[in-house]
Amino acid sequence: MSTGKIGVTSNDLFPIIKKFLYSDHDIFLREIVSNAVDATQKLKTLSSTGEFKGELGDLTVRVNVDKEAKTITISDKGIGMTQEEIEKYINQIAFSGAEEFLDKYKDQANAIIGHFGLGFYSSFMVSDKVDIVTLSHKEGAKAVKWSCEGNPEYTLEEVEKAERGTDIVMHISEEEKDFLEESRLQELLNKYCKFLPIEIAFGKKKEWKDGKEEQTDEDNVINDTNPAWTKKPADLKEEDYGDFYRQLYPMGEDPLFHIHLNVDYPFNLTGILYFPKIKNSVEIQKNKIQLYCNQVFVTDSVEGIVPEFLTLLHGVIDSPDIPLNVSRSYLQSDGNVKKISNHITKKVADSLMDIFKKDRTEFESKWDDLRMFVEYGMLTEEKFFDRAKKFFLIKNTEGKYFTLEEYEAIIKENQTDKDNNIINLYATDMDAQFSYVEAAKAKGYDVLLMDSQLDNHIINHLEQKETNKKYVRVDSDVVDKLIQKDEVKESKLSEEEKTDLIPVFNSQLPTEGVNYMVTFESLGEEAQPLMITQAEFMRRMKDMAAMNAGMGFYGEMPDSYNLVVNTDHELVATILKDKDAKLNDKLSEVSTKLTPLFEERDALEALKKDKKEEEVPQEEKDKMADIQKQITEVNAEKEGLLQEFGKDNQLVKQLIDLALLANNMLKGEELAKFVKRSVQMIK
C-alpha cells in the first residue's frame, strides 16, 4: 500500500469543493453516474477500433444504497483505471482524462461527457470518505483501491476485484444523510440521468404481491437510452412526439406544435421543442425546457441561456457544445451557448412560418393558444419580431384572422384619417364594449379583438415600428372622432347652453376615485344621449402600469373619463327646457350682476393695453383683482344654482346611470337605485 498527497496547491481546496464547486449538492449523483457512463462509452469506442478485444458483456451502470453502512455505490464495467492512471487523473485535480481521450479518439469517440476533471470531486460535497475500487480493461492489470477522507492525503493499495470497471463508494456524511433515502435517490436519478445513453439500474423492480410490495429479480432501469430527440425526424411519427412529450410532462396538456432540432454545423445541436397552450399567464409556464449535454441533464432553469420568450416553450435541447459547468452565469456568457440561442430563435420562427404556409386553417385554429408566445417573442427579441410579423395574426370581432399586411389592405381606404394615418380600431371585451363596436360597424369600420394579456404592449410596439399606423380602442371617443376626418358637425347648443349643462351633469356624476370631464358632441338624434369614453393614452398607461411596477405613477392616478353629451338628442333639449323653466328668473338675476362686472373688467383691460406689467398702476391692478374675485363669486353662485337643479333632476341621474350601465360601471347600491327609479318613471 502507498500513501501520498493529492496534487493541489492549498489545503483549503477541499472545503471549497464541498461548499462551492456546484450550487446544488445533489449534482454529485449526476457527475459520478456520468463518469461511469463515460468510462463505459470509452470501452465501446476501444472495442469498435479493435484496441479492446475482450467481451463487452453487460454494460449496465448500477447504483446501490446501503443505509446501514451509510454508503452510495456507483458501479460500471467500463475501461477501469490502473494505479498510474489513478495517480494521473484522480490525484492531479482538474486534469481531464476525457479531454485527452477525446483528442486521441475524436473521430470515433461516443459522447464523452467529462470536460473539466472536477466532476469526481463533487462526491466530497456529500461524503466524509470516498473509495475508488477499479480494475483496468488492460491485459494483466491489477485492481487497486484509492481512499480519501476529504483532505489532500490519500491511500492507494492493490486489492482483489473480479470484474473490469470501477466502483465509486461514497461514505455519506451525517448532514447529507437524506441522500441515503431510496426515494430521494430515485428522484435525483430521474432528474439527472433519465436519458443517459447507457442503462442505469437502481436496485431491482418491485411489485405488489399478496398485499405487500416485494422485490423482483429484474433490474430497475431508470433511463431511456435512446430518447426521441436523438433519432432522425424521418424515423419518428406524430405519435412518437406525443409519447415523448408525455414522458417529459406526464401531467401536461397536449401541446400545439413541435419543432425537431437537428443541426451539425456550425455546431452540434439536437432537441425537440413543444409549443404549449398559453392562455393568459406568462410566468407560470416558464422553465419547462430541459438543457442536456450528450444526454446528461444540465439545467431546467434556462432564463438567460436561451432568449426569454423561449422559456415559455417545453421540451429538450441537447448539445455537446453546452458546457457541463458549475454555474448558470458561466453558461450565460459562453460563446457557444449564445450561438445556439440565436439559432434556436431563427429555427422557431422559420418553423412557425412553415406551419403557417403549409396549413393556415390549422394554424388559425391554434392561434389563440399560441398568440401570447409569439407576442412575447416579438416584444423581447428583435430578430424574432422581424420574422414573426409575417405570420402574426390579428382577429376581428367577426372571428376572422388576418396578417398585418392583409388587414392593412382591407381597412386602408375607409380607416385612414385626415393626417394619412391608418387607424386600427379594437375592442378588448366584446360584451363590455358591444355598443361601441356596433357604432363603429354602423359607420362602416372594422374592429379588431385585442384581449390578450400582452396586447397592450404589442400595440405600442407595432405603433413604434410603423408610425403611420395607430391603434384606437372603440370606447376611447365618440365614433365620429375615432378616425378624424375633415368634416365638422354643427352643434345645436350655444356655448352658453353647454356651459350651463356642465355643472348640471357634474352634480350627479360619481366622484370617489374617478374623474369625469363633461364634453359635448353632435352625434345625431338616433345616438345615445350620453356616452362615457376614456382617452386612449391614459387608459394605456394605466393598463401598462398594472403589469409594470416601474410605471406606478400612472397606476396611482385616479381613472379619468369623458361624459360625452349628445347635443342633438331630444332628452338633452328636455333638460335644458326644464332648467330654463325652473331657473330662468334666478339666472337672469345672476347675469344682471355679471354684466357690469364684465364691462368694468373690459375697461381696465383696455387701459393696460400696450403697457408692460410694471407700467400698470397698482391701483388698477388691485381694482382688476377685486373685480375678478367678484366675477368668480357670482359664477360660483350661478354654478351652485345649476348643481342644485341637477341634483334634483331625475332625468339627469337616469341618463348618467344609463351611460354608466352601458360601460358596466353601475354596480351595487347605485344599480339597485337605478332599477327602482326606472320602475317609478315607467309608471
Automatic annotation (TrEMBL):
The keyword ATP-binding applies. PROSITE patterns: HSP90. InterPro entries: HATPase_C_sf, Heat_shock_protein_90_CS, Hsp90_fam, Hsp90_N, Ribosomal_Su5_D2-typ_SF. Pfam families: HATPase_c_3, HSP90. Keywords: ATP-binding, Chaperone, Nucleotide-binding. Belongs to the heat shock protein 90 family. PANTHER family: HEAT SHOCK PROTEIN 90 FAMILY MEMBER. This is Molecular chaperone HtpG. It comes from Marinifilum caeruleilacunae.
